[in-house]
Structure formats: C-alpha cells, structure tokens
Amino acid sequence: MLIGMSNQTAIKPAVAAASGVKTSPHRFNRFEIKYLIPEHEVPALREQLAERMYTDPLSPPGGYRVESLYFDSPDLRCYTEKIEGLKFRRKFRIRSYGEGVLGPNSKVSAEIKQRVNKVTQKRRLDLPFIYALALGDSTGVAVGERVDVDKLLASVPEVQHNLVREIASFAQNYRLRPIATTKYHREAFVGVDAEASSRVTIDHGVSGRDRDFLLGQDFDDRPTVTPGIAVVEIKCDERVPFWLTDMTAQLEMSVIRMSKYCQTIEAFNNRPASALGSVDPIF
C-alpha cells in the first residue's frame, strides 16, 4: 500500500474544495517583488490594475482563500536559511485553494519553492492531501506511516518522478515535519498580450498557526502581518512592465523583503509548538 493504509484510501480522482480556483503551472521561474500597503489604499491600486490587467478569470468573484502548510526541520533550518539570506535555499509546502475542510483525497499542490540568487523557482505536483502529507513528513506521524516512494511513483505521471524523489530526499535529509500554516484571502490580476506572464496579487488578512494542521478549518489564526495591511506581490517571468514600476512609484509603494512563512515563525517567537515535541496526527 502507498503509505500503509487500507484499500479504501487507494488512489482516487482527487477532489478539490469547491472554490473554482485552478492551480498554476507545474514548473516555472519568475521574479517576485513584495510591497505592504494599508487596506484603505487598496481601492486605488485595484482601480489602476483594472486599467491594464484582467481579474484572474480562474478566480471566483471577490477572490479566494489560500492556505499553505509549511514543513521544516525541528531546528527550523529552512527558516534560518531564509533569514541568513542564502543565495540557494528551498522549502516544501502543501497549498490548498478555496473553502472547505480537506479530506484525505482532497486535491492539493505539493510544492518545492526555491530561491536561486534573485530568481524564484517553483515545481509542483497535484496529489491527494494524505499522500502529500506522507511525502513531506519524514516522521510518518502525520498520517500514521512513512510514504512508500516506489508505490507513489507508480501512481503519478513519469514526468513527475524526479520531483517526487527530490521531495522525499529533501524530507529525509532535512528531517522535515509539519511546522506552520499561512492563510489569507487573495485577489489576483493577470496581464494581457505581451504581458500575459505578469501577475499581481493582493493578499488580505494574512495569518498563521503552529498546530492543528488539517487545512480548511475556520480558526481565528494569529495575525502574522499587521491587521489593516495588505501584501501586494508583482510576479513576472522576465522583467516588470514599465507601467507597473511607474504605478508603484506613484502610489509610493516601497519594496520589502518578507516571507509569509517566516512571519508565522516570528509571530510565535521563533518557537512554534510544532517544532518542540512530537508531530500531531492529521489523519
């Protein structure tokens, strides 16, 4: 069996939360620039974006919920590498989109996100939540048993085999375990024509927690960005369009360096409960 469970949890068509949100491409490089702006300035930003970009056609009206579960070592090695500014660093996360508590077969994105100098690289595969958890949790406690990589490989397309192996190796070498979540409500805008690869997101109510890692629950998580402040990200494959640069200057938006995952760790005084003891079962 894939991770030591009965046939009733064998591979089925993955069921996503009823969000209407489609996930991003499975492999890409890009530049990401972040800003913090007060919520009362968002309408002006939204108005300017609407003149040159489309609201993401894959998004439900009004945006959608994004929740991510991040994995790290007990000594928070991934967090430390980010804070120390290593030119090459990476992390593993599971991301879900939309509302509703996830079940074992709910569709999630299992992602390696890495930074190489100034370029962000992402590789992802879509898996049932329970298999993504087993793949990233080196302890095996989250779902009751460690993943059987060979059997997981038999269930995914061959083009994704190297990524499965990489995640499994990363999890074992770093002793990864579930550590923290991030959660927010996202508005997304996409470029058109020659700027079709450009994307701008506005994230509201950024929060997180360091326990209870079943995704989709309606907890009042701890704010990890100051309430009343939104996180704006400009994401481009090659260069930022000049009009976007001019817009940020006109709106007096200042570039910041931040990680939502690191914000969660710091919100718990760099001592998240998930790193201090045994891993809590999720399924």
TrEMBL record:
BP GO annotations: polyphosphate biosynthetic process
Domain VTC: 29-268
SUPFAM superfamilies in alphabetical order: CYTH-like phosphatases (SSF55154)
InterPro entries membership: CYTH-like_dom_sf (IPR033469), VTC_domain (IPR018966), VTC_sf (IPR042267)
CDD domains hit by this protein: PolyPPase_VTC_like (cd07750)
Pfam families (UniProt xref): VTC (PF09359)
Domain of life, source organism: Bacteria
UniProt protein name: VTC domain-containing protein
Organism (species): Corynebacterium deserti GIMN1.010
